[in-house]
Predict the structure.
Amino acid sequence: MTAQLIDGKKVAQDIREGLKKEIAELKSKGITPGLAVVLVGENPASKKYVASKEKTCEEIGIKSFGYKLPEQTSQEELLKLIDRLNADPEVHGILVQLPLPKHLDEKEVMYRIAPEKDVDGFGPHSLGKLVLDEPTFVPCTPFGVIKMLEAYGIDPAGKHAVVVGRSIIVGKPLALLLLRKNATVTVCHSRTANLKEECLRADILCVAIGKAKFITGDMIKPGAVVIDIGINVTPEGKIVGDVDFEAAKERASYITPVPGGAGPMTIAMLMYNTVQAAKYAGGMR
Ligand code: NDP
């Protein structure tokens, strides 16, 4: 059996098309969704992500406000900028590209972003509401995973979902979202004993650990849905996921490619959250 590809690029494109129309409508009512994109330092991967976020904003009609700050920016300066953006009515969403340089306190920065502008969904207000199953900004990568499953008619209800990785950015919120979709969820991490056995029990296996091809074919239950969130660069400069794609696709029923799976969805969901933020600010829902 060869798995069906889950085409994140296509699903993301459909989402962007839908947003374009919504944005045009908002503009006709005098609201232009605005996203502030803050980059500190010279991390090459971060620069690339920020550039594609700004490009997507431009493509669909969101006004982006780019702030490129030097590596040596102090915590105080960064917090001051956040305060300014919090107060700026043209800015509906604030994105601070992570990771920040080591001398900066990421948590304090996330806590400082106004809840109604927290389009990345990493602040305590957004995450708290996620746990409470209340409407909020859902972190973009796990949100994108759920949207991909929906687009392919994959219903997690009653399935055993295994999430490998427990970061705030991906694993933990994804586990909560799958739980909300009535999956039975297991969360694995670096201290999990018998990772292979846990993975083999997964009807839906989601992996976000940051280790190239770490999940081998023999860790996948035949017929499982495999969602690979990892982005790793090989010594040859090739981008690969956390799953050994070639082996996994012979066991899985559905699989996401890397690149072209979770990656494009993340940016699409950031745009989605920004449009929601603009609607909330305009008194709409
Ligand atoms: P983190 O480094 O924050 O977290 C990694 C997680 O993986 C941790 O929970 C860690 O466990 C777990 N882990 C590490 N090694 C193992 C192991 N050997 N066995 C089991 N679990 C392990 O990473 P992120 O969540 O931020 O990112 C994960 C991957 O997803 C990266 O490749 C990143 O580039 C990618 N990513 C992709 C995005 C996209 O847009 N597609 C967006 C965000 C991330 P522990 O908690 O015990 O340390």
Notes: The chain has ten helices and eleven strands. The pocket of NDP is lined by residues 141, 164-167, 169-171, 188-192, 195, 208-211, 229-232, 262-263, 266 (CB under 6 Å). The chain has two domains: 30-114, 140-263.
